[in-house]
Every structure is written in C-alpha cells, then in structure tokens.
Write a structure and sequence with these properties.
single chain, 458 residues, mainly alpha, 3-stranded mixed sheet, two-stranded parallel sheet, 4% strand, extended
C-alpha cells in the first residue's frame, strides 16, 4: 500500500513537471511572437481616450481593423469597392493580382498592429486591399485631378467638393491606419515602370498639406516639396508628423523616449519636468516681449534678449483631433521623440486665459477659426492632460530655462508683481496715484511746518 501511495505521488509529480514544461514552452513561443512583431499602429491608451473619445474615433471612414465594425462608418465601404474597381479597370488588371500580392505581406501587416487582429486571413487581406486602393485613389486624385482619373465632378467622395476634408482628418488618426508598405506594394503593381520607395510618400504629401497648422498656402507647398524622405514612413500619421518636425530642426536622436507618462496614476494631470512656469500676462509684466517669427515651421520658437519669437499658427475645428493623435503616437511608439508634445506643453503653459490668446492674436502669433479666444485657451489647456512630459531632451528645454531665469530674477519679479498688483486695472492705478499725491502733499506740508519753526517769519 505504501508503494502504491509512493507511485501515485511520483505520477502526480511527473504530471506537474510536464505541465510546467508545457507552460514554459508556450511562454517561449509567445515571447518569440512578441519579438517578431513590430507594432506601429496602436490602440489609444484608455487614460488618453477617456479625456476626448471623439478626437480618436473616425467620423466618416474606417481604415484598418480597429474600427471596421463601427456601423456609422459602413456607408463608406461601397466607395472603397468603387475605388478598387476604378483601379483595376484603369490598369486592366485581374483583381486576384492585388489579393495575391497582399497575401504575401499578411503576417508582416498583422504584426504592425498592437495586439491580435480577430479577422480570418481572407477578410484581413481583402480589407488591406480595399483600404489601400481607396487611399491611393485619394492621393492620385489630388495629384492628377479626380476627373482625369475617371471620377465625375459631383462625386460624393472622389472630388474636391465632396467629403474630402473629413476623410483627410480621419486618415491622420492613430487607430485608423494601415501599414505604409501595403500602400507601396499596391502602387508598385499599378505603376511598376516608374515606381520607387518614395512614390507613395510623394503622392501623400500634397494630400495632407491642408492640415498643416499654418495659414500660408504657398509656404505649405514649398515646405512639403522640400521634405527629404529618408526612410519609408510607418503609416500616414507618422508621415504627417515627420513633415511637421523634420525640416531644419536639429532633433535629439530618435531612439529613446525623452518623456514618459505617469504609471502610478491615471487621474492626475502631470507637469513637465522643464516648463515655462508663467503665462503670457506674467511674462509681459516681467519685461518679456512677444514677436511673430517669420517661418511656417510653427514649432521653431526662439528666445533672446527678453524677446520671445513664436511662429504663426492656425487653429481650426480639426486642430484638436490632429494634435491629440500625434501626442498619442508620441506616447505609444518607443522610437518616437516628443517634439510636438513639447511644443503643445510650451503653449499650454503660456496660455492661461482668453486674454493671453487675444494678445498672441494681436501680435500675429495665433490665428483661429473657433468661436472665441476662450475656446482656443481651453483647446491648448486640454491637449496634454494625463501626460507627464520630460522636456529636458527636447529642442525647447534650453529656451524654457532662459525664460524662467528671466522671470525669476528678484528685481524683475518684484517689479512684475508690483505692476500686476497695483496697475492691473484702472481703479488700482488711480488709487496708487492718489496715494502718491497725498503722500507728496503730506511731505510738503511737514517740510514747511519744520522750516517755519526753525526760521520764523520776521
């Protein structure tokens, strides 16, 4: 009986060890799968999404798998089929050519998304082809003209007067992307004789140009045409972001996070390690002067000799969504630096109220199409909520230190606080003047009383 009990224990021990070995084998496979994946298209973290769900959700068209089940986006599916039909009809291609080409890239494409995609192989490949051809038709329509490539002037989608602006904004939302190499492969099928690795990016740049936050169209076109495409973009949002920051700015090496979010709590709004700690009104009182910088590179802020030069920026009803998605990408992608977030944090700390916006508008720095100046202040103040940014490695870190040092000088601070306390409104100014006059009258009267005592009249 003891032998049976011993054998039973040994069997249980053996089964337990086998189970551990199987779990370790599964863990090894999972680990290898994670290392093989190279995600660049992310789900917006919940702590960011909860602040403004609308900014991250497409309004009119779903691209990729994340929002493909949203019913309000389904009407655009028939227009994707129209784009696919126009593509194969224009080039006299068999539709299977496109499906086979993307089938070969399926595993790589799935690895571009964060997490597993619950679509079977056929549905996933079909989605990549339809979405990719749809995007390329939009790019080609802006480049060559929609009528020239086979669409009527009154087309509800493929026309300048259609829903193009809403679609353009949807295509720069983080969750609404497909890998750029899918677009590259589809375009290579269409134009094999003239295709190169930069062909799609060159077509995409003019399409997204209207979203650049400057109100000088000629400057937009010039700056985009000069953009040097050094590597293939990851997706449309990353291409758009690179156009904003990769012109002439000497950026830190983009291999390390230069800022991070708070991992201990999601409910506390973080403050950057290095920031401008005073708003426009306070800096003006300290003697800092504001000037519009003549460049369309809105992030290129300069500070020298108490003059803060800020380029002009245009804020419209789509700006909040654009900036929020760029911030989300900078937050999620490990190899992305924080240049746009650094700019937004800088502006957030400069702007405390509508009065600050009004002054920057007066100086030609902020132009906006929103309801009033308070709406612009609310926009900037809300963009970086739930983000703890370390700006020490950003292009603005040295500049913010200089501004803070200027404001923190004892004499400058005393003078600014005195001016703010006693000259902030007309009644305070009148009270100070009256007090000074009364003090002078009292002094003169005392002087004459003393003078008459020591030198009486004859």
């Amino acid at each position: 009986m003891d032998n049976n009990f011993s054998n039973q224990n040994q069997n249980l021990q053996s089964e337990w060890l086998i189970t551990i070995a199987e779990d370790l084998q599964k863990a090894r496979q999972d680990n290898e799968a994670i290392f093989a994946r190279k995600p660049c298209i992310y789900k917006v973290p919940r702590y960011l999404r909860d602040a403004d769900k609308k900014s991250y959700t497409p309004n009119i068209v779903s691209i990729g798998p994340y929002h493909s089940q949203n019913r309000h986006l389904h009407p655009m599916e028939r227009h994707k089929w129209r784009a696919f039909y126009q593509t194969i009809n224009r080039h006299s291609h068999d539709f299977k050519l496109y499906l086979d080409a993307i089938k070969n890239l399926e595993e790589k494409a799935r690895g571009s998304y964060e997490g597993e995609i619950n679509l079977n192989s056929n549905d996933f490949v079909k989605m990549m082809v339809l979405d990719g051809c749809f995007i390329l038709e939009l790019f080609r329509g802006i480049k060559d003209g929609f009528e020239e490539i086979g669409y009527v002037k009154s087309d509800p989608v493929f026309a300048i007067c259609g829903s193009l602006d809403s679609i353009r904004r949807d295509l720069v939302k983080l969750e609404n992307q497909i890998p750029f190499f899918i677009l590259d492969e589809l375009l290579a099928i269409q134009t094999p004789e003239v295709h190169d690795t930069n062909s799609v990016a060159k077509m995409a740049i003019p399409f997204f140009a209207p979203l650049i936050p400057t109100d000088e169209p000629m400057q937009k076109d010039e700056s985009f045409s000069q953009f040097d495409i050094q590597i293939q973009p990851l997706h449309c949002l990353q291409l758009f972001r690179e156009n904003l920051v990769n012109k002439t700015l000497n950026l830190p090496k983009r291999t390390k996070k230069s800022w991070k979010r708070s991992r201990l709590t999601r409910n506390v709004v973080g403050k950057p390690t290095t920031q401008v700690t005073y708003c426009v009104s306070q800096l003006r009182e300290s003697g800092v002067r504001f000037k519009k910088r003549d460049t369309d590179q809105f992030w290129d802020i300069k500070y020298k000799n108490s003059i803060l030069e800020i380029p002009r920026i245009l804020i419209h009803d789509g700006s909040k969504s654009i900036f929020r998605n760029i911030v989300a990408f900078e937050e999620c992608h490990p190899e992305c630096s924080n240049e746009i977030t650094a700019y937004l944090v800088f502006m957030n700390n400069l702007i405390d109220s509508g009065e600050d916006v009004a002054f920057l508008h007066y100086k030609g720095i902020i132009e906006h199409w929103l309801g009033n100046d308070n709406d612009v202040a609310d926009l900037f103040n809300g963009l970086c909520q739930e983000v703890v940014a370390d700006l020490n490695n950003s292009h603005l870190s040295g500049l913010t230190d200089e501004i803070n040092k200027c404001r923190d000088r004892r004499w400058t601070t005393w003078k600014a606080d005195f001016r703010h306390k006693y000259f902030g409104n007309p009644w305070a100014f009148i009270s100070v003047v009256a007090a000074v006059v009364l003090l002078m009258i009292t002094f003169v009267q005392a002087f004459y009383d003393i003078f008459s005592y020591y030198k009486p009249t004859s």
